[in-house]
Write a structure and sequence with these properties.
This protein is of the alpha/beta class. The protein has one domain (5-55, 65-303): phage-related protein like fold. Helices cover 30% and strands 25% of the residues. The chain contains 8 helices and 13 strands. It has helices at residues 5-25, 30-33, 87-91, 99-122, 162-178, 203-211, 232-237, 273-278, and strands at residues 34-38, 43-45, 73-75, 77-86, 154-156, 194-198, 214-215, 218-219, 227-230, 242-246, 254-267, 280-293, 299-303. A 5-stranded mixed sheet has the order 5-13-10-6-9. Strand 7 and strand 8 form a beta hairpin. The longest helix has 24 residues, at 99-122. Residues 63-67 have low confidence and may be disordered.
Length: 305
């Protein structure tokens, strides 16, 4: 095959179509746990975090209340993944071996925020890496925000058998129901959409807890209580710890600031300095985004030592 501008343009179009199809076809789980916010600047300002005023009887004039404000922002980061295609592969018409790699590139671009969200969960109890908007760890035994009273969302588990997991789930849900927001009102009065993020080692224990109609010859009252996300990233950190997230509200516990969604790029000018020196063309993806913490009272971590 002759390496010409027309040939390279056709290859670029082909690779871009493969990338976009693969990107669109990959089903990511991170949107279940995080709210995506469009970002137009270097950082996403989340200083507005705080609850809206509670409804009250209108007796005289309206009572004007602003949102509690906190100094909190997350700064977007640049990400990229690039592969190179040897000029000889084009001349020898062996591009077929590269098409699966372009498919993988599309999946990787869609997958990556999932790793970021998982890292937020893993590091959420770290007093350096896991700081939320109030400068405390996202998962902590002691926290008070405004009029919330103490919020303990770092829970001690009893074990990893089905019976122990079931008991710990009930304890975590009760804890979520008891958390109050910064105005002293129950933050989670309705827990009708819960996500249980578990390591793969607990996947079937969790699915039995929420899917089986009968457990040990007893009717299971927890059928349909929560969706299960078996997350290999949290499993790589700890095979026994798991997370319960309230995802039924307009804002989820975690955030993704999306400054620029990953797209397909190519450096394929046959006259470029890179091609001249390296005899290869570059195809890749890059994006600009970051993850962050939102509302700690909508999540709990259960630790099994």
């Amino acid at each position: 095959m002759i390496v010409s501008s027309d040939t390279l343009a056709a290859i670029r179009t082909d690779f871009q179509a493969i990338f976009l199809e693969s990107y669109a076809g990959f089903v990511a789980r991170w949107p279940d746990a995080a709210t995506e916010f469009p970002s137009t600047t270097e950082s996403l300002d989340l200083s507005w975090i705080g609850e809206v005023p509670s409804m009250k009887e209108w007796v005289d004039e309206r009572v004007l209340e602003g949102l509690r404000r906190y100094r909190y922002a997350i700064t977007n980061k640049n990400w990229e993944a690039t592969i190179k295609v040897d000029r000889n592969a084009i001349e020898d018409d062996t591009l077929g071996v590269y098409r699966p790699r372009i498919q993988g590139l599309g999946q990787e671009a869609k997958r990556h925020p999932e790793e970021i969200i998982s890292d937020l969960l893993i590091n959420g109890d770290d007093t350096t890496l896991g700081l939320a908007f109030d400068a405390a760890a996202f998962f902590a035994n002691t926290r008070s925000v405004g009029d919330s009273g103490n919020i303990d969302n770092l829970l001690a588990g009893t074990g990893v058998t089905q019976a122990q997991f079931q008991a710990d789930y009930i304890a975590a849900k009760v804890a979520l129901a008891g958390y109050k927001n910064d105005r002293g009102k129950p933050m989670n009065p309705v827990l009708n959409k819960l996500l249980c993020v578990v390591p793969p080692a607990l996947e079937f224990v969790a699915k039995q807890t929420f899917n089986a109609t009968i457990i040990s010859q007893t009717q299971n009252i927890l059928v349909g209580e929560a969706d299960v996300w078996a997350n290999p990233y949290v499993g790589a950190d700890d095979a026994n710890d798991w997370y319960l997230l309230n995802i039924g509200g307009p804002i989820k516990p975690l955030a993704i600031s999306m400054r620029r969604r990953p797209g397909f790029d190519a450096l394929d000018d046959p006259r470029s300095e890179h091609v001249f020196k390296n005899r290869s063309f570059l195809y890749g993806t890059d994006g600009r985004y970051v993850g962050g913490y939102l509302l700690p009272w909508m999540a709990a971590k259960t630790i099994n030592s």
